[in-house]
Amino acid sequence: MERRVNYKNDVNLKATELRLGLPGSDEPERQVTPSIRNNKRTSSEISEKSRSKSSSGVTEVGNDDHHDSTAPPAKAQVIVGWPPIRSYRKSCLQTNENEVEGAGMYVKVSVDGAPYLRKIDLKVHRSYPELLEALENMFKLTIGAYSEREGYNGSDYAPTYEDKDGDWMLVGDVPWQMFISSCKRLRIIKGSEARGLGCI
Amino acid sequence: MRRNGAEDMSEDDERQQSPRSDLEFTSNKARYCKATGSASDHPDQVLENVLENVLHFLTSRRDRNSVSLVCKSWYRVEALTRSELFIGNCYAVSPGRATARFTRVRALHLKGKPRFADFNLMPPDWGAHFNPWLLAMAKPYPWLEKVYLKRMSVTNDDLATLAESFSGFKELVLVCCDGFGTNGLASFVSKCRQLRVLDLIESEVIHDGTDWISCFPQGESHLESLIFDCVEWPINFEALERLVARSPLLKKLRLNRYVSIGQLYRLMIQAPQLTHLGTGLFSPLEIAGQGDQELDYGTAFAACRSLVCLSGFREIIPDYLPAIYPVCANLTSLNFSYANINAEQLKPIISKCHKLRVFWVLDSICDEGLQAVAATCKELRELRVFPINAQEDIDSPVSEVGLQAISEGCQKLQSILYFCQRMTNEAVIAMSKNCPDLVVFRLCIMGRHKPDPVTGEPMDDGFGAIVMNCKKLTRLAVSGLLTDKAFEYIGKYGKLVRTLSVAFAGDSDMGLKYVLEGCSQLQKLEIRDSPFGDAALRSGLHHCYYMRFLWMSSCRLTRQGCQEIAHAMPRLVVEVIRSADMEMDDFVETLYMYRSLEGPRIDAPKYVTIL
């Protein structure tokens, strides 16, 4: 991918150059020998698409040692199945962290009165209405509409979240992106506590 | 089925298997077929009766295989008296052939996919279905009691059929299996009235929504072991509590992460006779006013006087760790591999664990934590250090310092699996000298092609020392920057090595040649991303025949080369596996080759080509 960027930078000169070969055939960095590196790159890229359960955030293969230094250093590369940790173990450890690159951002959700917690992937949703709808479906309850003035007045439940400072905040006050980056866990409170928020 | 504290039985299995047993199968069968069904002479009959009685006591698989080779009479009697059938590769022999030879089997141990399938190197639906085995066994083995499956695909219907077909069925152990869900579990437990053991270990369980725990039959249960820590769905706790209360024989209970510490408490006080406990979440549910924090968990642990094996701790809050102090002194196995704790949190625990023999942990404890382990755990036989952060090129919480400490403190070590970001030859050499009893040495330096950070040298000398000094070594996994020299050492000194795992290593075909020519006991060879090609494989072909399997992915094998091998070795099944959308390329993406009496299998998916 980085190599393609390189090529584009050169194209203004090379495109107008008179040569005998086919276009693109003399670009040394792009010549790929039938080596195992090439094989590895293609196969891993394509195979990654066909794998139903992929390891965390696999992007492309790293071929650092054997390619030209003209290619800018690749960003964090992950190889399929390396390091050799079972996907089960990887996913278990991931769900313990709230912020994980590329593999979803799972936060715990507790509901007052429910016997156990659930986990929800914040990255899957793009806005508050989506998130609230998902929560409503997950716990079979109604949260109601948010208003800046009165919070979630008019319903039995209100969604709150714990932010990075450890404070419990009402969901919906800050822009979505800010919420995503600061939310550590969710708690849906009910009853008088919920209604009380509207009176503040 | 023999179980030690850890789940991985592979080394125990291998010790019992004679390499050529199933090849001899055919020739013996020919001899056997010559014998008529008519009664033998009197002396022979007496001898056979005596032999039958004697052979009932023979449990070792390897010994039994040897016995079966003596003569046709012994072959026949051995087949009659073998009650535990082990099949290391489910495609090496057909269910029909196995049930025809062994007619009185009570326990089946079956392994399917190769290990690299765990790391997404094999597309799903490759095979290893339990179903044909199940169907083949229903009539010949009405008294079947135990089934142990590893890396097999099992469906919900299979589970139901299993319970229905065998009225005396007692033990089911599924390790790294998939294809079934809570529905299947529900049918299984409800129909299996004599169930003693249900162990689901690192298997993927589909959520069908069924409350399977409630499906255990009412009345006193025979349950001795219930392991479901891998089930990633909530369970009906009240039903579980009632089940535990009516299972007086229950010794092993491993809960999943949907059981809170408060619930754990309630279970423990019902079952103080437990020997193996998986603690589940090990933190309270975060609902205000539940009062979990007031319970004295320490007394619950103290009441479990027989507890020797602890695991779980899935979302541990370190404040609760002191609760396990009362049992530490008796613990022989401790699994902290899901517990994100640091050295300071580990020390008060580990300093009490004098009897510990098996310890699994995360690298969050750092070298300092490993030093604490080394200081106390003099009886340690098995250590596994897993990475919290499974990436390359990040800072290493554990390193050669930890390994060195362990080698000095835990000199009885037999098995080690160590993930790290940096390692020196010096530390590996030290371990080879300090721990002569090593049977399993698996070092994973997570950065590919990484040399010794102190000397800049490849890691050849370190691994060389391991094969040279550890005379009992049977399993080896290598990593880091390795040249052909490392493989020369392995071929020269690794005479007992049965399982070898290689990744991103070697310079040329010579590397593979050394191994194939030198390691006479090699059974399982798995290689990925290494520059070994057709010539190397061809040169070692004669040895491939004695191996259970060979796996090579992203190496330099060509299709033509594999084709030649398939022609030359008719008793080997040569599978070329490619990704679904990749075209037929010159280079073979994955070669999986194994010996088999049956020829090409019929259940291969379309991206598998059998040459």
Description:
Chain A: InterPro entries: AUX/IAA_dom, AUX_IAA, PB1-like. Chain A: Its main location: nucleus. Chain A: Residues 42-51 have a biased composition (Basic and acidic residues). Chain A: Homodimers and heterodimers. Chain A: Keywords: Auxin signaling pathway, Nucleus, Repressor, Transcription, Transcription regulation. The complex is a heterodimer of chains A (200) and B (611). Chain A is of the alpha+beta class and 200 residues long. Chain A has a domain at 106-194: Ubiquitin-like (UB roll). Chain A has six helices and five strands; from the N terminus they run αααββαββαβα. A five-stranded mixed sheet of chain A has the order 2-1-5-3-4. In chain A, a hairpin with a 6-residue loop joins β1 and β2 (118-121). The longest helix of chain A is centred in the first third of the chain and has 15 residues, at 36-50. Chain A is globular, with a radius of gyration of 25 Å. By secondary structure, chain B is of the alpha/beta class. Chain B has a domain at 46-78: Monooxygenase (Up-down Bundle), CATH 1.20.1280.50. Chain B contains 23 helices and 23 strands. In chain B, the strands form two sheets. Chain B has a 21-stranded mixed sheet, covered by helices on one side. In chain B, α10 (237-245) links the parallel β8 (225-227) and β9 (252-255). In chain B, α14 runs parallel beside α15 (366-376). Chain B is globular and about 70 Å long. In chain B, 51% of the residues are buried. Residues 1-39 of chain B have low confidence and may be disordered. Classes of the chains: A alpha+beta (200), B alpha/beta (611).
The largest inter-chain interface, given as chain pair and residues per side, is: A-B, 47 and 55 residues
Note poorly predicted spans of chain A: 1-11, 24-76, 98-103
Shape of chain B: globular
- The helix/strand series of chain A, from N terminus to C terminus, equals HHHEEHEEHEH
Reading off the top of the CATH hierarchy, the class of the domain at 46-78 in chain B is best stated as: Mainly Alpha
Computed over alpha carbons, the radius of gyration of chain B is 25 Å
The averaged pLDDT of chain A comes out at: 64
By secondary-structure content and strand pairing, the structural class of chain A works out as alpha+beta
The level of helicity of chain B is 25-40%
